[in-house]
Amino acid sequence: FYGRDGVHDAKRIAHLARGVTSLAAWWRIPVRDVLDVGAGPGYWRDWLSAELPKVRYHGLDVSDHACRTYGHEQADLATWSPRKAYDLVVCQSVLQYLDDAACSRAIGTLGDACRGILVLEVPTTADREGAIDPSGTDLDVHWRTGAWYRRRLGRHLTEIGAGLWLSRRNPA
After folding, report:
1. In this structure, how many other beta carbons lie within 10 angstroms of the beta carbon of residue 132?
2. In this predicted structure, what is the pLDDT of residue 171?
3. Distance of alpha carbon 84 from alpha carbon 58, whole angstroms
């Protein structure tokens, strides 16, 4: 996945990071620490370092290459246990690569790791049928409905729209 043109680049992630952290500020949800799952080249880390340097960042990736190259902790979200909860958890393009059992465990881990906002990006069967550009998207994934994800995520988080979920632990 590295070294080829992808859907996301540093500029696109900068727009997303600015939007998410601005919404968190609007909702009075502090962002003091961030967990980036599937951190890849570390675009969130780079943006946070430049724009919000006091925010603590923890990158997690299953790829040995990403971890060696970009300095993340190597771990599988389906078996990893967070030592703490984070104000902001980012999970982009991860869950679709896990089988149903591993994905369910990973969703539980996301719920445990998040005390504020979760940014989740995962393609669904509805996306495959009408929103995805197949020339720029990996289609060799586990396709699930949005309802499948919502049922599992809803045990821990409340969907607030645009791929954002609020932890049920958050007092805001």
Report:
1. 16
2. 56
3. 11
